[in-house]
């Protein structure tokens, strides 16, 4: 049974890799479109992370995708880079930060 988008974002903090995030102070944001829409941000301040439901005005990197694609990435059924290359996942902002996301969270994201 798949988790909902909201449940996956709630679980994000538990999968956050503080060692990989040491020295990073950035904000990631996900904009989910389609039947389960919403915006979630994840703020990282020198290795400590917190989820901000509803998002922030100026994130460093924003991922835009459907709930179906995001759930598949988060559950490890879809490769994030492949989703990006095929246009299922769009990225705005800091691409270098976007590339680090798989290391910052223990599965897919």
Automatic annotation (TrEMBL):
Gene3D superfamilies: SCP2 sterol-binding domain (3.30.1050.10). InterPro entries: SCP2_sterol-bd_dom (IPR003033), SCP2_sterol-bd_dom_sf (IPR036527). It comes from the Bacteria. One of its GO terms (cellular component) is cytosol. Residues 18-105 form the SCP2 domain. Pfam families: SCP2 (PF02036). PANTHER family: SCP2 STEROL-BINDING DOMAIN-CONTAINING PROTEIN 1 (PTHR10094:SF25), STEROL CARRIER PROTEIN 2 SCP-2 FAMILY PROTEIN (PTHR10094). This is SCP2 domain-containing protein. It comes from Streptomyces calidiresistens.
């Amino acid at each position: 049974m798949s988790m909902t988008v909201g449940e996956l974002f709630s679980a994000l903090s538990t999968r956050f890799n503080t060692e990989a995030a040491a020295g990073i102070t950035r904000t990631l944001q996900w904009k989910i479109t389609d039947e389960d829409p919403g915006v979630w941000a994840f703020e990282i301040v020198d290795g400590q992370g917190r989820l901000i439901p509803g998002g922030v005005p100026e994130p460093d990197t924003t991922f835009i995708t459907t709930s179906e694609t995001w759930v598949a990435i988060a559950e490890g059924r879809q490769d994030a880079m492949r989703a990006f290359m095929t246009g299922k996942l769009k990225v705005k902002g800091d691409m270098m930060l976007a590339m680090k996301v798989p290391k910052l969270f223990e599965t897919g994201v």
